[in-house]
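Example record used in the benchmark description.
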Amino acid sequence: MRADRGRAVVAGVALAEPGPDGGEGRTWGLPPDLVDALREWARVAASVRVGAGPSGDPAADAISRRGRQLAARLSVELAAPVDYWDPVTGHRVALRRVTRTPHPPPVPPLPRSGNGHGGGAPAAGPSVEEAEPTAVTAAAEPTPWGVGLTLAALVAGVVLLANLALAAPLITGLGLVGLAVDAAVVAGLVPALWLNRHVPTWRWAVYGTFAGTGLALVVLAVAAF
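Model output (structure tokens):
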């Protein structure tokens, strides 16, 4: 989803006017109020220079925030992920499939570009509606605790058994030195695992790896002493 010269574009096709005589473009079966909101947002966004940055300018902030809200609602209506191209910052924001939740978390902020002062102020234009979209949306799916914890437990078990099987001969032959060698190997994996602690799906494997490694070190320490 993006704004192109005052026109709202979804999947590379400009949105048409709601109704049978909408002209060029299509509505993708979206509710008329959402189509109108997207078209209005695109018209207002045309007054902003790309890459100007929203920081310090209320109108640019409102355009950027409204666009993310509409992208979240678009994801709900299409039941699909949405890539949102912000007309203010020029950043691409990939939204996973947004679901309806009773208490949605806030939409994550966009990264700021440059030094935060921008390259110029947007031209004057019509006011932007800053109200929340009528559909209750969220920018992230609910946390899959059941599946996630199961995956973490399985990974923890595999890592625990693998670590014990590989490190047991070291502990038997070298004692505390073998334990130190195993700890050094494990420490080398920590930075790579730590970088993935917030990645969907992989984070559960990371948690399981940490848990399995910690348990293995405890068992090996007991054996070494």
